[in-house]
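Posting here for the record, re: arginine.
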Amino acid sequence: MSKKLWGGRFEKGTDKVVEDFHSSIRFDQRLYKQDIRGSIAHARMLGRQGIIAASEAEQIIEGLEKIMADIEAGRVEFDVAAEDIHMNIEKILTERIGDVGKKLHTGRSRNDQVALDVRLYLRDEITETGRLLRELITVLLERAEEHVDTIMPGYTHLQKAQPITLAHHLLAYVQMFGRDCSRLVDCAKRFNISPLGSGALAGTTFPLDRMAVAQELGFDGITENSLDGVSDRDFAIEFCGAASLIMMHLSRFCEEIILWSSQEFSFIELDDAYSTGSSMMPQKKNPDVAELIRGKTGRVYGDLMALLTVMKSLPLAYNKDMQEDKENLFDAVDTVKGCLAVFTPMIRTMRVRGERMKAGAKGGFTNATDVADYLAKKGVSFREAHEIVGKMVLMCVQKSVALEDLSFEDFRACSEAFEEDVFDAIRVERCVADRKVPGGPAPDAVKAAIQAARERLS
Ligand code: ARG
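Prediction output follows.
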């Protein structure tokens, strides 16, 4: 049994089973960079404040920089017995530079150290996730620009409702992913403050310059209460909440991709590079990527629920339960990034079958509202017009024809308000073009929306 950094008050070593059980080095080694950055800033401040000698601070910093380089080069092996990344690095440091290494932890606890590391980690990952989201939005805007005139059916209840365009449909997702971006930014804004100096729970007797450390590490300020500084994991939960919404949006889009690429819809064809085949059925081309993203949505929701449940009812301040925050947080980060990285090129390369979309927009009485609107514009009340057109649809269903296939006499028989111009007014192109209201599907409104989204992006 190995000697622990905290072993002073113990008469016996840790049982081997316990050692394996409570060690987190297997997963928290991913925080090595943040841990070393934090330690360097802490050591520099200790030296500047005269808490340790300036030369000692220098030795520590130099030692930490070498450890960083060695970890990066794959030359460091971590030790399960040293528990976590924080103690592994401190242990290596002391092995290398001698007793002066033991001064690094002055005025610090692993509790504020780990709170710092996770914040630094998440800050970088939020930047990367935001970049991936903006890349997706850029591709959506490019594809929308191509398809401003590509008419397709819009649905409610997955029943054909009214004609829209593919561009308009894609722009709905631009809105969702735009909100996701702002949620990430907002979340980072709230947690970008340094907990170092909170100590184990009650701060420290050493005259630390918390603000200087925070500034060196790129924080906007410091946490205002030492208990909260070490026991707050709201930011991890907020991130998982934001990540869950990203996944929810991706899964809705994926569901449509899966439907649209079915033979029954045939609205799109995924590129071969983003589809897979069947081991038995030679004809198959499956939208596995979209399905897998839809499936992975569940794990990110699971990560969110796991974190909420870990934190539920924990008394202040730090409790070892909180070591369980990392694997779920890392999983959410990896999953959302992995999904975005494959979803974006899948959308960029998918082939759109405009003729199939337009054909789809034509069946199913998608212009029925336009017939009613036509009557309302000719002075019939909308409620009455709705009733008249409902009867016309019933008549069409019985005859198996579309509204535009009715003769002018048929129209007149239903309402005297119909004139010859009704046929032009209910063409599917007109149905789209006349919905010029801001936020609507008319090509000019969509072009304006693309322009506005581009401006927001830059
Ligand atoms: N590995 C620990 C964690 O991730 C670090 C903090 C440990 N603190 C303690 N008092 N045992 O939560």
